[in-house]
């Protein structure tokens, strides 16, 4: 069952038309008030929060205060209340994007644009402070941009307390971001308007540099930095920024409120003076937005098999691989500090890149190497999806041919074995390749040394499998995850009931993450139960683990979600059209976007694109990282292509 109302449904006096976004406290819909015929943005809070009586009281009280705020740069609140136990807030729908999306698209803002937008936000904040209200959650995601106008949302909205959070995290809702939170807010001290000055300073820093004030991999590292580390120096990140700006950010982000600007107007006035003393050289170069072409439809998520499960035809597995050897797996998780340093380095590289007038097509700095295709595409069967490397061989599941191709890494000596209808995902264990067979509701274990095979029945319409230790997890469209014993190839115990329509799955150290495309969430499974459910993008198809995060490719929203496995915090990066495959290895995250024929390299620390996008014709789909290379199946072309991962 869906944890939140779905679109198309009536909710109190409203009809829910579309999802505008998801946040730390719930889902925001485009909705229509049925009697007034007014289109609104309707925020429906997570059921876990709505159930909490204390929280409910505070929410309704504080939304009254927010509704009383009447400022041209504050999103007007129309209505707040409760429907069937779910709290909601109706507000003016601001057409456009939030500032977080603008920054993802553009990298940074020009000085004038940044000052003009944040000037409006600062005005609204100063007016609220005079009225005794503190926003407490100023961040790019709460600044909605419509043309050259900015609107602050979530004003004065109550933030869950620690007690609420404990209840929430226990049931899988995640915390908001500490990226802009003032030290006194983190330590739970009394707040006044200067906490918002601090946050606005952080947002200004990000608008000008493209970097959060304290870019760290883990939330606890961000919290620590907010409390103890010196404020960032924008001119060090982007040498074209005047050093005078360092002083302005330093003052806005001072640890003690008494050391900060007293008002937002003071902060923005100081920033304007600093920026106007800027040198005459070109100062602002927009980093080109990743292309998001919406092109040809791609049948990358085949519908579940309509036919009743047929008995799988006897498999003829490929013969033994005599030159079997252990293949080096992807790099293990980098230590936290190394990750943080890597993230800083990437920011510096982006700054250099922009200084050189760079965009997507220019040469990156010499310290980095873009990923690139090596060699010719290797022909395989029809509509290949899963790709794996094990036993020193390359294996590909050809969905339309009903075969498993096995060949040397250079594509030579290819042999195809029949494996039954609709083989889809592949997984590997030490001495086996696992083929998920959608049409026959089963997984086939193929011994890479002896060529023998075993079959285990799984749920209805399985697509993907993940191996971890002595288990292989197979996810099915019927919401089950079947655990198969890696050695015997037989199902172990009853399937796990995860619910929804399951697609991609990944597992590490006994923790399993699985995408549920029916509910647009990723679920964490531990000890045989779903213990966390995290909203991601639309139609999540594949999942990978690596670089300190869980990665989800959202085919319907052309994005990748970076999920912090500890906090559940989600960062979203736009990639190309209809991303399907995601894998981690060689220090990067790899994403295929089949609708525009691209392969994306993302930085695991930030989730953002790292270096040039690789063009790969023929609808790139499945991806794996092995033997120092990235391997991609092209579904339309019927090929596998090897990519040199480069470096960043
Ligand atoms: N009034 C609005 N008009 C249009 N879009 C909105 C509005 N309010 C929120 N959104 C969209 O919904 C997303 C989620 O909002 P929200 O739940 O407040 O997230 P968060 O918890 O991160 O602040 C926002 O980033 C924005 O894109
Ligand atoms: Mg918000």
Task: Summarize the topology.
Blueprint: E1 10-11, E2 14-22, E3 26-33, E4 38-45, H1 47-50, H2 53-68, E5 77-83, E6 86-92, E7 97-98, H3 99-106, H4 111-130, E8 143-146, E9 149-152, H5 162-170, H6 183-186, H7 193-209, H8 219-228, H9 234-237, H10 244-252, H11 264-276, H12 336-355, E10 372-379, E11 384-390, E12 393-398, E13 403-408, E14 415-418, E15 423-429, E16 432-437, E17 442-447, E18 453-457, E19 462-468, E20 471-476, E21 480-485, E22 496-497, E23 502-508, E24 511-516, E25 521-526, E26 529-535, E27 540-546, E28 549-554, E29 559-563, E30 570-574, E31 579-585, E32 588-593, E33 598-602, E34 614-615, E35 620-626, E36 629-634, E37 639-644
Antiparallel strand pairs: 1-2, 2-3, 3-4, 4-6, 5-6, 7-8, 8-9, 10-37, 11-12, 12-13, 13-14, 15-16, 16-17, 17-18, 19-20, 20-21, 21-22, 23-24, 24-25, 25-26, 27-28, 28-29, 29-30, 31-32, 32-33, 33-34, 35-36, 36-37
Helix pairs in contact: 4-7, 4-11, 10-11
Features:
Phosphorylase Kinase, domain 1; Methylamine Dehydrogenase, Chain H; 3 domains; alpha+beta; Transferase(Phosphotransferase), domain 1; 6-stranded antiparallel sheet; 37 strands; 4-stranded antiparallel sheet; 33% strand; 12 helices; 648 residues; binds adenosine-5'-diphosphate; binds magnesium ion
Helix content: 10-25%
Whole-number total of structural domains: 3
| Name given to the CATH homologous superfamily of the largest domain | YVTN repeat-like/Quinoprotein amine dehydrogenase
| Low-confidence segments | 167-175, 279-366
The rounded distance between the terminal residues' Cα atoms is 42 Å
Silhouette: globular
